[in-house]
Every structure is written in C-alpha cells, then in structure tokens.
Specification:
With about 375 residues, the protein is of the alpha/beta class. The chain has 3 domains: about 180 residues, FAD/NAD(P)-binding domain, CATH 3.50.50; about 110 residues, FAD/NAD(P)-binding domain (3-Layer(bba) Sandwich); about 50 residues, no CATH class. About 20% of the residues lie in helices and about 30% in strands. It is built from 7 helices and 27 strands. A 6-stranded mixed β-sheet has the order 3-2-1-7-20-19, covered by helices on one side. Strand 26 and strand 27 form a beta hairpin. The longest helix has 17 residues. The radius of gyration is 22 Å and the shape is globular. It starts with 7 loop residues before the first strand and ends with a helix.
Length: about 375
C-alpha cells in the first residue's frame, strides 16, 4: 500500500464480520486511520447466543458478550450508512457525516424477513429483539413460532424451556431443507417429546389483535397465541448501495478473496462467494469470520493474499440436543456411524456425497472441530 498519503479504511457494519475484518486489517499490517460504523448502539456481540442461552429464564445474560475490540478503530455506533459514492470514495451516514476511504469493507449483514407489517409479529435478529422476547416470556405466554428452520426451532426450544405452550408452524417437516431427512427426523422427535406442537402447512396469514395474534392457515385452521414470532429467513442489507454500481438488489457477488472490485470487499450475510456449487450466500457465524479474514488480507496484500478456502461449519442447540456439522448441508440419505449408532445417544456421523464432497456431524458428541473437519475430508 502506498505511503505517500495517510491510508483510510472504513468498515461498514459492526457484527462479527465487521469486527473480524477490522481486527484482520490490523493483523495484515494496516496501520492507517480505521473507522467502524454500526447501526446498533451496542458493541459487537455474538448473534448465535440470542436464540439460545439468552432466551432462557435464568440463563446467562452475558452469553452474547464478546471480548473488547483490539483494533483501535474509531467506532461510530447507532448510525446507519445511507449511500456509497464509489467515484468520490465516500460513505454517507444518516447523521450527515461523510467518511472518505481508501479501503472499504461492506459488512452490513441482513435483517429478518417479515410476513406482515403488524407490530404483533415479532422477529429475532438483534440484541434488542432477544431482550424484548425474553421479557415477554417471563409471563409464560402461549407462543406461535412461524418457520421450521434452525432459528425457528431454536426459538421454539427456548420458549418451551421457559415454560410456555408452543406451536411451531412449518412448510413441510422442520429442518429438512437445512439438514436433510435423517437429522431433521432426530430433532423433530426430540421436539415432539419435549412438548412442541408442530403444524405443517403450505402457508398462512397473520392477523393481529391487541394483546394477541393469530395465524390463519390455508386449510382454514386458526392458531391463536399471546406471542407470535416469525423466523422465515433474512434479507441482505444492500438497499443503501443503490446507485453505487455494485449491486442492483439482493446479495453482493464477490471473488474468491471477498472483493467486489479493487479496494472494496464485502463479507458476511450480504455477500455471495464462490463455492463448489456456484456463488452462494452462507449466513453462518464461522462463514462470516473466514470471509472477513480473507478479504481484509486481500485489501492489504492484494493478490499475494490466499483465496478463501472455506469448509462450512454449522452448529445448533435445541430440545436438549447439540449438533455440530462440517460440510455443505443438507444431507441426503442415511449416515455412516463412525461412533455410536441409531436409537439415541451421542453419535459421530459422516456422509459421502455424490459430488465428491464429505460431511461429518457430531450429535451430542464431544469432539474438537479440527478432528470433525478431518472426518469430513475423509468422507469425501
């Protein structure tokens, strides 16, 4: 990088992708002026904890906290980026501030997809959402959760553990689209045994009333509850980039080093990067970290920086079960048992896919992640 003038780097987004990018810029040798912009007033925190320990009555209220940032950046929190001018190299904020940059990291993440504009429809995306839902659960209300993916199931699990009566509405068998039939079956059985009511439907409509909400299903059935939470996916936060020439809508496509163009990187939930299955957005915690490390090095070192070599890592805790998986999901067919077996209990599993890749999963099984990665490679 040139030393003729002070270098200025701006990171837009203060989630784990933005935090990691800022740390990695420093580790890669960037010693110029560094600014981090975050639209939440909170320091960076662990988003996966929001639907797990933080929801539980008596749970650890510090489970989401991360160590203080060590990048030494100027942090502008509680402000939102509204415009990017790539010709002038300026990021505009909603408080009127304009930030010039030489290197830019886009890490504005995504927001919860909503099914309605009703205030009775709650979502769980940020820390304030989790704290608000936790407070609501203290009264042990009846709860309807819409969405049978990992987040919806984790929310349902937390609500059940808090003593609520919970119904989960899902398009098809919960988790099957994310995990495949075998693991989905394991988790749904645990959920039913724990007392969750599962309703499979094609779609439904939310209606709100003071103090309650209800879901009218296609079949005509009506589900009523005091609390309604939807968990039906997310939407990349890229609207503020309209007019920048980087993206029209949807996720930002990046190259194998996380760069949108020279000097500009995109990381985390808003980025689609090359995988063996084409450009894909993998909104996982570990994915955001690895993308951010790679992109920050590329911004400092250029083509000398190695491209992203990423093995997806997914984990969930729900209904008394813990799953860790390395490799691309979902998983077809029955697994090979490396340890344990069908019928319950801890198990170490792996799948060999027809495309030549492998996946390894630990179900209630203590194993270091590096060994799980080696098992996935061995299954390939």
């Amino acid at each position: 990088m040139s030393t003729a003038a002070p270098e200025r780097a701006v990171v837009v987004g203060n989630g784990i992708a933005g935090l990691t990018a800022a740390d990695s810029l420093r580790e890669a040798g960037f010693d110029g002026e560094l600014t981090v912009v975050g639209d939440e007033p909170h320091p960076a925190y662990s988003r996966p904890a929001l639907s797990k320990a933080l929801l539980l009555d008596g749970g650890d209220l510090s489970s989401h906290e991360l160590a203080p940032a060590g990048h030494g950046a100027t942090e502008l929190l509680g402000v939102r980026a509204t415009r990017l001018d790539t010709d002038r190299r300026l990021v505009s904020l909603d408080d009127g501030t304009e930030l010039p940059y030489d290197r830019l990291v886009l890490a504005t993440g995504s927001r919860a997809r909503r099914l309605s504009g009703l205030p009775d429809e709650l979502t769980l995306r940020g820390l304030d959402d989790a704290l608000s839902l936790r407070a609501r659960l203290a009264a042990r209300p009846s709860v309807v959760v819409i969405g049978g993916g990992p987040l919806g199931m984790e929310i349902a699990s937390g609500c059940l553990a808090s003593g609520c009566r919970v119904t989960l509405v899902s398009q098809g068998l919960p988790l099957i689209a994310q995990l495949g039939p075998y693991l989905a079956g394991v988790f749904v059985k645990a959920a039913l045994d724990a007392g969750l009511t599962v309703v499979e439907t094609a779609s439904g409509q939310i209606e709100g009333f003071p103090g309650s909400a209800r879901v009218v299903l296609d079949e005509g059935a009506v589900l009523e509850a005091e609390v309604l939470v939807s968990a039906v996916g997310d939407v990349p936060n890229t609207e503020w980039l309209a007019g920048s020439g980087l993206v029209a809508e949807g996720p930002l496509p990046v190259d194998s080093r996380g760069l949108v163009r020279p000097g500009i990187a995109a990381v985390g939930d808003l980025a689609a990067f090359p995988t063996p299955f084409g450009l894909r957005r993998l909104p996982f915690w570990s994915s955001a970290i690895e993308q951010a490390k790679t992109a920050a090095r590329a911004l400092v070192r250029g083509e000398e920086a190695p491209p992203l070599a990423f093995e997806p890592y997914f984990w969930t805790e729900q209904f008394g079960l813990t799953l860790k998986a390395v490799g691309h999901l979902p998983l077809p067919g029955e697994p090979e048992y490396v340890d344990g077996g069908p019928g319950g209990g801890p198990a170490l599993l792996r799948w060999s896919r027809e495309d030549g890749t492998g996946v390894a999963a630990a179900l209630d099984y203590r194993i270091p992640i590096p060994r799980l990665r080696r098992l996935a490679r061995a299954a390939a």
